[in-house]
Design goal:
alpha/beta; OB fold (Dihydrolipoamide Acetyltransferase, E2P); Rossmann fold; Ribonucleotide Reductase Protein R1, domain 1; five-stranded mixed barrel; globular; binds guanosine-5'-triphosphate; binds zinc ion; G_CP_dom; cytoplasm; RNA-binding; EC 3.6.1.-; P-loop_NTPase
Length: 320
Amino acid sequence: MSKPARPGAAPAAGTQPGLVVAGFGRHVLVETASGERVICHPRGKKNQALVGDRIRWLPTQDEGTIEKIETRSNLFYRQDEMRTKSFAANLDQVLILIAAEPEFSESQLTRALIAAEAERITPIIALNKSDLSEPFGRAWTKLAPYRAMGYRMLPLAVKPKFDAAENAAQTAELMELLRGKKTLMLGPSGAGKSSLTNLLIPQAKVLTAEISQALNSGKHTTTSTTLYWVDEARTTALIDSPGFQEFGLNHIQPMQLATLMPDLKAHAQNCKFYNCTHLHEPGCGVISEVNLAGGQGSISASRYRLYSELFAELSQERRY
Ligand SMILES: Nc1nc2c(ncn2[C@@H]2O[C@H](COP(=O)(O)OP(=O)(O)OP(=O)(O)O)[C@@H](O)[C@H]2O)c(=O)[nH]1
Ligand SMILES: [Zn+2]
């Protein structure tokens, strides 16, 4: 009998390397070294393999079992009201896709950025629908503080109402950023995630249908996280996680939060107390920056409000 898969455990004899390219519940689709795809089941109750995981698997009749999950370089979580679950691993970067319309939520954006910072992953912010010039201008302005924080940001028109010369250039710039990397794409409903997937991976719809057929006995599902190769050489990957709502941040300590927000971090070193929560302490560098006359400071009132709300949320989650 083989031992249950455990991250970092020694591989069992006869196992083969593979990459998890889709996940549905406890079953995953594994891509073999030669590019074939096999459904694999986990051995044991724990250690669910995630999209992006490098694994060792063992063939059974027409399927396989996962014998080992290689050590992960990072791990991403999502959360709903009920609980936090991990859903993707070993990412190189995160593409946060938002749009001129519907108006993006600064809270959702901030949460996604914090989750990326916590895993030391570079986030890219893409603002879609640059063809809608008026709302686009407003949204671009709203993003000014995030550009000032140093985040990589680019305009995009994935599926413009009217084609313009710059659309192709914007897509090309994005492609340049994605090249050779595994990128998790996320964003609110209506931002253009499926449009972007279809643009970069024209066969995505067919692949998705095949995957849900294979993993879910033909029942249509949109809840699986899927890794799509953008190029034939399989060096550039886009990971789509439909139904995405919120990043799971419960694993983050409240006292860690300010170090994951570059605008706050820059002023936290001026605090009088080393364990300052930046909520009420005298001599707090963060609070004095927020209170600079006329809102001239580099920490906006809305970012500071998000910080205090998240601080309260993370302090509560810890109790159960
Ligand atoms: N004007 C304009 N509309 C766009 C652009 N890109 C996408 N859209 C439209 O925006 C709407 C939403 O696009 P989707 O690709 O379905 O967005 P999504 O993020 O996948 O949304 P969900 O499936 O709800 O998560 C569609 O009607 C698209 O045609 C763009 O660059 N410009
Ligand atoms: Zn402080």
